[in-house]
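DM from R.C. (forwarded with permission)

"hey, sorry to bug you on a friday — could you get me a structure for this? deadline for the figure draft is monday and I only need the backbone to look sensible"
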Amino acid sequence: MPLIDLRDLTLEAPIESDLCIIGSGPAGLSIAREFANTSVKVLVLESGGRTEESDTQALYDIESAGLPRVMEQRQVRNRILGGSSHTWYGRCAPLEPIDYEVRDWVPYSGWPITHKDLQEYEHRASKILGLGSNDYGEAIREQFAIGARQALNPALLRDQFWQYSKVSNRDR
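My reply, with the result:
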């Protein structure tokens, strides 16, 4: 599939596709991969280029109305081909149920789907990424015989487990 920088095109004709995916990070490219070798014409749009560009990264600059940010967004997010995988290097964890819920203090929060709606796809993504079991939390604690938590208030602090995706020989 060709990589074309839209800044290099003269748009004499419209760009047409059956499916347009916004973002070339792990999620966007995984979706595009599902349509490889099909009749579906896929267009993946990324706001960055093949290398990091300061003017594009500046789109992450924010004005914090609350507590000052300790880390700038541009250090953990990437507008570049491959998206934020450039920062996270394959670190994976599923979304949490609260990520789908409406929160009064977060404008435009809430999804029209639930965590349960995506579980089947999380298992497929886990296989594509070469992850181990798709278990997190207590299941991982049991699998690796990690002892019980000591003196942690679960209302204030909880475990977070991550896995790292494998790089196949064909991806190198």
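R.C.: lifesaver. The longest helix spans residues 115-128.
me: no worries. The CA atoms of residues 24 and 165 lie 17 Å apart.
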